[in-house]
Specification:
Elements lengths: L1 H23 L1 H16 L17 E3 L5 E3 H4 L4 E5 L6 H12 L1 H6 L3 E6 L3 H4 L9 E5 L4 H5 L3 E3 L2 H9 L4 H5 L5 E3 L2 E5 L5 E6 L9 H13 L1
Parallel strand pairs: 3-4, 4-5
Antiparallel strand pairs: 1-2, 3-8, 6-7, 8-9
Length: 221
């Protein structure tokens, strides 16, 4: 089954990426571990929509600047993913895995929405040329903030990213140096959350096999 294979590949890719970063940039791994520990200690993400909740309405701009309302977009089974940005290799790896699973997601008539704080010119990289994936821009991380998913980077991490050439102020259009905690919500009819995956450790993502199983459950709800 493609879903299981995709899940294994995604897990392997993320593990391989983490190991490469650990070997090539041990200082970044140290900063990431500290960042994750700080978020975990604060129980970050715990207040985000729970299973059984109605996912909040939103209006966000698309890659072309068109304002998209959730009530027009999420009319059936849906997957809503929050991604840190095109500059994050863990996010691009997850987006690639979702694109690979599109045939099964489309068969289930699932709407796939990726939400990122990137400005449209950068957010477009998440679409991968797939018109069935809607990429929306969360300006200034305002929506992720309302959901309890906002994470502020510490000064040492900001300094490391700047030295590495990652210019979040240019990517996001602000100097907040904030990112969403990566999260995946699976919604059934009426935008009711039927499953979710939230982990303060941005190096972990929802396995595609779990996503596909959750989508089947949402479609049946």
């Amino acid at each position: 089954m493609q879903g299981k294979d995709s899940a294994d590949r995604l897990t392997e890719r993320l593990a391989s990426l983490s190991e490469k970063v650990r070997q090539d940039h041990p200082d970044l791994t140290r900063l990431a571990d500290a960042f994750v520990e700080r978020l975990a200690a604060a129980n970050a993400g715990a207040s985000a929509p729970q299973v059984g909740d109605i996912f909040p309405d939103f209006v966000l701009p698309s890659m072309t600047g068109e304002l998209v309302a959730s009530r027009d977009l999420l009319r059936g089974p849906s997957v809503v993913c929050f991604l840190r940005g095109h500059w994050c290799p863990y996010c691009t790896t997850e987006a690639d895995a979702i694109q690979e699973a599109l045939p099964e997601l489309e068969t289930a008539n699932v709407t796939v929405v990726l939400i990122t704080p990137d400005r449209p010119a950068f957010a477009a990289q998440f679409a991968g040329g797939q018109s069935s994936i809607r990429v929306l821009c969360d300006i200034d991380n305002a929506f992720s903030f309302t959901l309890g998913l906002l994470a502020i980077m510490d000064e040492e991490t900001v300094a490391w990213l700047k030295a590495d050439g990652d210019d979040l102020p240019r990517y996001q259009g602000n100097d907040l140096w904030s990112v969403p905690i990566p999260a995946t919500f699976v919604l059934g009819r009426g935008s009711i959350v039927t499953d979710r995956f939230i982990d303060p450790d941005y190096r972990r993502r929802m396995p595609i096999s779990d996503l596909l199983e959750a989508v089947k459950k949402a479609a049946a709800s």
